[in-house]
Design goal:
Radius of gyration: 19 Å
Distance between the termini: 64 Å
Number of strands: 8
Order of helices and strands: HEHEHEHEEHEHHHEHHE
Mean pLDDT: 96
Low-confidence stretches: none
CATH superfamily of one domain: Vaccinia Virus protein VP39
Helix content: 25-40%
Largest sheet: 8 strands, mixed
Strand content: 25-35%
Length: 256
């Protein structure tokens, strides 16, 4: 029996969104993966350095996929539920998980690491990254690119505003390259891809918007119930809702 709109929404609205694991969406949504394979790139770099830190590690899900860590391995996370998950997941493997206030300076000395990694950081503090890297050290990351999931944003809140376009522009590779270079980092490789996302039921949309909170920052089921119902009917008629995720690979080296 097919679940109703109310059942799908209630199920997604009550699901836990702690951590950075999207397995709840299995069979309900898909997202194309970037061609560069960040997980493998990160794993290869971690296996070849003496000291590394993973920024905005979430629940440690991505970092935990690396088969080998360097002798000194740290991870940083600001949201307490995620920091707790990361500690539980990573401590048994010798990773020091540091909980920090949101948007704070990194709690490490200058030139502490050979490698800094991050997957989908919300904010990139280029000066802090450069500060904790040793000369010749590397920042390897996968960033969220400009206008990611813009189709979802526009469905719920309308055409992009000037402030939204400005926020997207700050995520453009050209802007990030300039920011990195201003902090003393040399871009070795930077690639930008736009990747297809498909949502097969309204529950998947609700879960995604609750988890990826910057997509529609004021999202709640009650606030957007009417739009959710419209989208539910559209998905039923068309079989899916299609959006696109933007991803940027950043491989930068500290000069000096």
């Amino acid at each position: 029996m097919t679940a109703t709109f109310e059942e799908l929404v209630a199920q997604a609205d009550s699901a836990s969104v702690d951590g950075w694991d999207f397995s709840w969406l299995d069979g309900r949504a898909t997202e194309q993966r970037p061609s560069w394979g960040y997980q493998q790139l990160m794993s290869n770099r971690l296996a070849s350095v003496a000291a590394a830190v993973d920024l905005q590690t979430g629940g440690g899900e991505v970092l935990a996929g690396a088969p080998k860590f360097p002798p000194t391995m740290a991870a940083v996370e600001s949201w307490p539920p995620n920091a707790a998950l990361a500690t539980h997941r990573l401590h048994p493997r010798g990773v020091v998980v540091v909980a920090t206030p949101t948007e704070s300076e990194l709690p490490f000395s200058n030139e502490a690491f050979d490698l800094v990694t991050s997957r989908h950081p919300n904010t990139v503090w280029w000066n802090e990254i450069a500060r904790v890297l040793r000369p010749g050290g590397t920042y390897l990351a996968q960033h969220i690119g400009p206008a990611t999931a813009s189709e979802l944003v526009e469905f719920f809140v309308g055409p992009a505003t000037d402030s939204q376009r400005q926020a997207w522009a700050r995520r453009h590779p050209d802007h990030e390259r300039a920011q990195a270079e201003a902090a003393g980092l040399h871009i070795v490789d930077m690639r930008h891809e736009r990747l297809r996302q498909e949502f097969f039921d309204i529950g998947a949309v609700v879960y995604f918007l609750r988890k990826v909170i910057w997509t529609v920052p004021d999202f709640t089921v009650e606030r957007y119930r009417d739009r959710l119902r419209e989208l539910h009917e559209r998905i039923q008629a068309e079989g899916r809702f299609v959006a696109h995720a933007a991803r940027v690979l950043v491989d930068a080296r500290k000069l000096g």
